[in-house]
Amino acid sequence: KQQPPVRKKQGTSPGTLIYTGKEKPERIIVTAIHYNEHVFQETQILKNQIKRHSATDNTITWINVEGLTDISIIEKTGSEFNLHNLLLEDVLNVYQIPKLDDYHESGILFITLNEFKLINNTCDLEKDQVSLIIGNNFVITFQEKAGDVFEPVRIRLRSAKGIIRKRNVDYLAYALMDALVDSYYIILDRYNEELFAIEDAIISKPKSNYLQPIHNLSKNLITFRRSVAPLKDVINKLIKEESYIIQETTKIYLRDITDHIEQLTTTIDTDREFLTNLINTNLSNTNNRMNEIIKVLTVISSIFIPLTFIVGVYGMNFENLPELKSENGYFILWGIMILIVIVQLIIFKKKKWL
Q1: Is 141 helix (H, G, I), strand (E, B) or coil?
Q2: Are strands 60-66 and 138-143 parallel, antiparallel or unpaired?
Q3: Beta strands in 234-353 (DSSP E)
Q4: DSSP state at residue 54
Q5: Domains along the chain?
Q6: For the chain, give me the number of helices (H) and strands (E)?
Q7: Phi-psi group of 36: left, alpha or beta (phi > 0 → left; psi -120 to 50 → alpha; rest → beta)
Q8: Could you give the angle at the alpha carbon of 157 between the alpha carbons of 258 and 167, nearest 5°?
Q9: Nearest CA to 109 among 295, 258, 254?
Q10: What are the pLDDT digits (tens) for 292-350?
Q11: How far apart, in whole angstroms, are the C-alpha atoms of residue 60 and residue 140?
Q12: Which one, of 201, 152, 206, 145, lies nearest residue 175 by Cα?
C-alpha cells in the first residue's frame, strides 16, 4: 500500500536534496556495467568508485543504484556526471508521475517512471519510483528499492545476444523502459484473474456481498492507470523532439512501447467498465436478497392477518358470543384457522410466491 508522501520542509531552496520516501535503513547496492560490442564488464562498486568513463574509450556505461536513503551516493553520482541539482532533487522526490526533462545545457535526458510490485501476491500495489538519466555515453538508473525489473536487460548484455551491445546508449535506454513496461503486463494479468474470479463468485454465490473486493480492485486499477497513461506522453515526446541522444533508428522501437502502453490503458479502462457492471450486478443481487426477505415477511404477515382477525373477534369482552357456549367451539375455531392457513399456502404456491 502506498505510504503518504513526505513533503519537503517549508523554506528549503530549489535543488535541496531530501529523500521524500519512507525512511528506513536499507543496503544501497550500486552496480556498474561497461560494454560495447566486444567488451563487457559488470561489477558491484562502492560510492567512491562511481566515475564517468571517457567518451574516447568507445564503451557505454550503465550505473544502477538500488536504494535512495544515502544522499551522499546521489551527490557523488551528480558530481561525477555533472548532473543538475534540480535533477537530483527529482530523483529523491519519489511521488511523481512519469515525466521527461531535457537538460539541453548538459546534454542529458531525465525520465521518471514507476515500478509496481504486488504485495504478498494480493492485488494491493507497492509503487516505487525509477529514475532514468541518459547521457551521450552513459545511462544511470535510480531504483527506490531493490528489484529485478531490469534483469532481462542484464541477461541480454551478458550473453551478447541480439543487437543491444551493437547499438548506442539510446537503445539501452529503450531496453530499460521496455523491460519496465513489460512488467506492467504481469500486474494486469493478476488483476484480470481477480476480475474473473469475482465475476465467477458473483454468479455462483449471488447471496454473498462482493463490494469490498470490487472496491479494492477498482482503487488499485485507478492507481495503476495514473502511472501508466502519462508514460505514453513521455515516449511520444522522446520520439517527436529533436535530440542528438535519441536516434531515428531507436524511435521505431519507442513507438512499439507506445503501442504497449495504449494496449495497457485500453485494457485497464475495459476492466474498470467491467467492474462497474460487476458493482451493478452485486447491487442487483443484494436487492434481490432484500426482495426475497421482504416477500417471506409479507407471506408470513398475510397468513397471520385473518388469524389475528379471528382471534381479535373472539377475544372481545362480549357476554353473548354463541360459539363460546358450543361444546366443540374451540376445536372448530382451530380447524377454521388451520384451513385458512392451508388455503393461503396453496394459493401462494400456485402463484409461485413460495
Answers
A1: strand
A2: parallel
A3: none
A4: P
A5: 29-284 (3.30.460.20), 288-350 (1.20.58.340)
A6: 7, 7
A7: beta
A8: 60
A9: 254
A10: 888 888 888 888 898 888 888 877 777 777 766 777 878 888 898 899 999 988 888 88
A11: 11
A12: 152
Cα distances (Å, whole numbers) of residue 258 to 44, 47, 102, 229, 239: 33, 36, 19, 10, 10
Helix, coil or strand: residue 14: coil
How do residues 241-278 score in pLDDT, each as one tens digit? Answer: 888 899 999 999 999 999 999 999 999 999 999 998 88
Per-residue pLDDT band at 50 (split at 50, 70, 90):
confident
For residue 95, the one-letter residue type is Y
Pairing of strands 29-35, 60-66: antiparallel
Give the residue from 69, 188, 82 showing the smallest Cα distance to 135: 82
Which amino acid, residue 235?
A: I
Whole-angstrom distance, CA of residue 12 vs CA of residue 29: 29
In terms of Cβ atoms closer than 10 Å to its own Cβ (0-12, 13-18, 19+), residue 318 is exposed
Give the full edge-to-edge strand order of the sheet including 138-143: 40-45, 29-35, 60-66, 138-143, 125-134, 108-118, 99-103
Kindly state the helix (H) or strand (E) to which residue 43 belongs, with its residue range: strand 40-45
Which residues touch 241 (CB under 8 Å, ≥6 apart)? 102
CA distance 40 to 37: 8
Give the amino acid at 287: N
Whether 254 and 204 have beta carbons less than 8 Å apart is answered as no
What stretch of H or E contains 62?
Answer: strand 60-66
Q: Which three cell numbers stand for residue 3?
A: 505510504
Using a 10 angstrom Cβ sphere, with 0-12 exposed, 13-18 middle and 19 or more buried, the burial of residue 40 is middle
Provide the CA 68 distance to its chain's centre, in angstroms: 23
